[in-house]
Specification:
globular; single chain; seven-stranded mixed β-sheet; Aminopeptidase; alpha+beta; 2 domains
Length: about 300
């Protein structure tokens, strides 16, 4: 915590943010996640860093969740790039994650980070493939049961059915979801909830946005049983002036088929360079499912 100043300045330079924003982001990381981090220093200046959070994965064939590490905001000062510093800061982080019992490193790489991912000797992540960017015109609003749209986190108790199917998923519970979205230091999210007998059993996270100048909604996450009904009810709840929903998800996610309750899901032809799923083994018995893109079910909200 004593090094938040230098850490914030490095991330601000590398990600085109203000030091104040990065200071808040690092405090948010620290408050909600178990972290393992390493920095490279030149005298009093932090010039490279690699930071990973410990998380839980739901993996088919295993009764309980498995622990993994997700890399966050790898960064090297522009003046120090090309010297192999990423390998030097990533190696001890991966060793610490492995010693802690994490079975894998998992995460998402932007197009800019993909070349670094492939070129690094130690970083050694396998690129599984890109996420899919879809746009859904809301041509189907036939569901009569509408969701409650709100700009603040719901106050009612939340009980969400956990998915236990043939897909690898990032584990989540109401407390972790609240920290992920409601406590974010500078991003603002909205929520759509389904309540039954005073309990929230369906939760969608979204943001209002624009696609090529057109009003739209960016859907980040869908939690709860029967996502098809949740999505249909969500479509019926949105104002007509928001006729498009944008979704980023893994190629084989079952949520992709459930989008049909809102309208046809079409590839977004003018989307930005996609995020790619990446994985690396951290144990001798890392489950093979983690290296199969068709076994992953994740959405844009899983990308911090």
């Amino acid at each position: 915590m004593a090094d938040l100043g230098p850490w914030s300045r490095l991330l601000a330079v590398c990600f085109d943010r203000t030091p104040e924003q990065m200071h808040g982001l690092l405090e948010w990381f620290r408050a909600g996640f178990e972290l393992v981090a390493m920095g490279a220093w030149d005298a009093g200046a932090l010039v490279a860093q690699y930071n990973a959070r410990v998380l839980q994965l739901l993996v088919p064939g295993f009764d309980g969740p498995l622990e993994a590490g997700m890399g966050l905001n790898m960064a090297v000062d522009p003046a120090y790039r090309g010297r192999g510093l990423l390998d030097q800061v990533a190696a001890p982080v991966h060793e610490a994650l492995s010693a802690r019992g994490c079975v894998a490193g998992v995460g998402f790489s932007s197009a800019g980070g993909l070349a670094v991912t492939k070129a690094s000797r130690h970083y050694a992540y396998e690129v599984l493939g890109p996420m899919v960017s879809l746009v859904v015109p809301l041509t189907r609003r036939r569901y009569s049961d509408r969701l409650t749209l709100r700009s603040t986190w719901p106050t009612a108790p939340i009980e969400l059915d956990a998915h236990r199917d043939g897909f690898v998923r990032y584990a989540a519970d109401p407390a972790s979801l609240r920290h992920r979205y409601a406590n974010h230091p500078f991003r603002r999210y909205a929520y759509a909830t389904r309540e039954r007998s005073g309990v929230v059993d369906g939760l969608l996270v979204f943001r209002e946005t624009r696609l090529r100048g057109l009003p739209a909604v960016s859907l980040l996450a869908v939690h709860g049983a029967d996502p098809e009904t949740l999505l249909g009810s969500f479509a019926a709840s949105l104002r007509p002036r928001r006729p498009l929903v944008h979704v980023l998800l893994s190629t084989a996610s079952p949520l992709r088929g459930a989008l049909a309750s809102m309208g046809p899901a079409l590839p977004l032809p003018f989307s930005r360079s996609p995020y790619h799923l990446i994985t690396r083994a951290l144990s001798s018995d890392t489950p093979a499912a983690l290296f199969d893109l068709d076994r992953w079910a994740c959405t844009g909200g899983d990308i911090l």
